[in-house]
Amino acid sequence: MDPFDAxxxxxxxxxxxxxxxxxxxxxxxxxxxxxxPILPSIAKGLDASAGQVxxxxxxxxxxxALAMLVTGFVSSRIGGRRTLLLGLAFVVVFAGLAGxxxxxxxxxxxxxxxxxxxxxxxxTALAVIVGAAAGGSAAAILLYESALxxxxxxxxxxxxxxxxxxxxxxxxxxxxxxxxxxxCITVFLKEQPKPARKTSLLDPIRALGHGGLAxxxxxxxxxxxxxxxxxxxxPFVLNMTPYKSGAxxxxxxxxxxxxxxxxxxxxxxxxxxxxxxGGSLVLLAADVLVLGYGNHTAAIVCTILSGAFIGVNNTVYxxxxxxxxxxxxxxxxxxxxxxxxxxxxxxxxxAPKIEEWTDVHIPFVVAAVTxxxxxxxxxxxxxxLTLPHxxxxxxxxxxxxxxxxxxxxxxxxxxxxxx
Length: 419
Fold this sequence. Notes:
Number of domains: 1
CATH topology: Growth Hormone, Chain: A
Order of helices and strands: HHHHHHHHHHHHHHEEH
């Protein structure tokens, strides 16, 4: 069945609660790439270096990684709806405060608070979408990846449009959009019963004891270093106006969305998930090498092209994280994200440092190496990364993550009731 079929079970036919959550997720993911086109403007406006401004990503993702240990603990006690609203409230407050910053230190601090809110929201949103989406987890993952791709594409565009007037406006714009998301969740997502089993703070760590999930997390850690070198460091290399930089990363985000939602599933059915992931990581490594050593035009083309490989990788990694172990999906997702987001925090910090120590090319050499290391983990640990038959179904010959039986629903996902 085509997941985009508007019939019953298709990705386009979903409860209002799912669309409200997905819409708010788009804005949440916009916040990641929002600052890309305005990084040079922020550096100029706050009299900061590239390394200092890159800490906007580091503080954001460091707190996001640590918060992954808390999200399941919180949501299993206060419920998914309240956790979503709490996360959105944090983002609204700290995104608004970020726009009032007078120093780069204040801005970095406010981005940390923003990261906490985003972690609470995004991790719970995935569980809500998987638990409530019609068409099973295959449609849910595609819907989540669609929200991710659209948000990553529109974030730089919004940042460029608002940031051309002032670097502060994109932060105020995000706060406003997330406030709308808060209202939509309030209206369309009804309160749900709390899970029968409360999640402890150590459950995500225990989940990583599964060899397959740990392998997926380690491979994703290396991949995310490459991903966020492109996202956080490339704007300084391109050195373009906010409009031009926004256009480049908008095109990058469009490719990310198209390849994550349309191309990756077809490639998986034809070649298998692990072959697709390994091949995509190798191609990404080659792409960032050309980005680092090519001329300005080549750097622009390779930046945009990297979105295709990143889109494929995101889809396959998400599927592996949710399906490779027997841990409940929210717990498995939290453990997986706890590991990989540390690389998203590290890359924006180390890339400018490496440039200072060497030259502008070497950060991309390091990024290429980490992408290859991610591929090596996939090859070496391919047996552990094979999804277990108990959580698979066949779709055109390719195994994909499947929902657990209804009797496990309270343990495995956040149950939602739509208006």
